[in-house]
Each structure stands twice: as C-alpha cells, then as structure tokens.
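User: Hi! I'm a student and our assignment asks us to look at how structure tokens line up with a sequence. Could you show me two examples?

Assistant: Happy to help. In each example below, the sequence comes first and the structure tokens follow. Example one:
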Amino acid sequence: MWKKKCEADDCSAPFAFARVKILVVDECSLVAVQLIARLLTIMTEQCDLEKVILLGDLLQLPSIQPGEALRLLQYLFLY
C-alpha cells in the first residue's frame, strides 16, 4: 500500500506528483489489474490528472500477477 512520505514530523509536505496532468503507462499489457487500479486511484485522488495514456501490446507476454489490465480494458471498451 502506498503511503505519503513525510520529511518533517507533520505530514504537510505536498505530494511530489500533485501537478501531473498526463499519466503515460508504457508496457501496460504486462501490468496486473490490481496494480493499475491502485495507480489510477492514487493519481486521481492526489493529482490534477486530465488524461491517461495506456501503451502496450496485447500479443505480448501476459502480466506476472493476476489479471491483464490492458486486455480487460480492450474488452470493456471495444466489444
């Protein structure tokens, strides 16, 4: 689980990626569903995210962990 790192005793330090507008995930065909879900949750809660670009090859090796995020998204949005 992700936890915000604090340099001081109080956790008032801003999130390092708070100004990110575009998130690009390369080799997304190798990413497990749980990992991509957690990444997107953190980035949408903590950033001013406007666009997500997922790159990958569906004919490539499947992810090591359970689930194939890119294949699932292809199935949900293209069929």
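Example two works the same way, sequence first and then tokens:
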Amino acid sequence: MLNDLGNLTTTTALALNNLGAPLSIITGRAPFELNGVLKRLQTDAPQIAFHGALIYAPRTGKKGLLGAWPLEALAMMA
C-alpha cells in the first residue's frame, strides 16, 4: 500500500477512498505510526495494530484489547 519511501501516494489514497466499503488497516506497527496514512483516508472503521493485539478507532480515540493474559498463563504456555 505504501511506496518505497513509506508514503501513501495520491493515486492509492483515491483508489482506497473510492472502494465504497469500510477500510481497516491491520499492521504490526503502533497506532501513532499510521497517523499520516489515516489522515489521507476517509474511513471511520476500526484499525488494528500491534499484530492484532489492539483494536482502535482513530477518529474517537477509543481503544480496546482483544484479550489479556496474566504472565502466569503465558509462562504455562511456553
């Protein structure tokens, strides 16, 4: 979606904005790293960051975890 310089081109932004469907970006990055891209996209859909560990709504700032496990439970899985 991004070019070699890590930017969203005008052509790509126009194409994504004209999809006619909700657009969610799913990334391993932190939410603040998507701010530049999201400013150019016309979407109110939830976005997913940290490899799916966080779902957030950029326009409202609402955030939520998909789940939380205590460290003891994670240690038992290893």
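Here is something you could point out in your write-up. The two ends are 35 Å apart (CA to CA).
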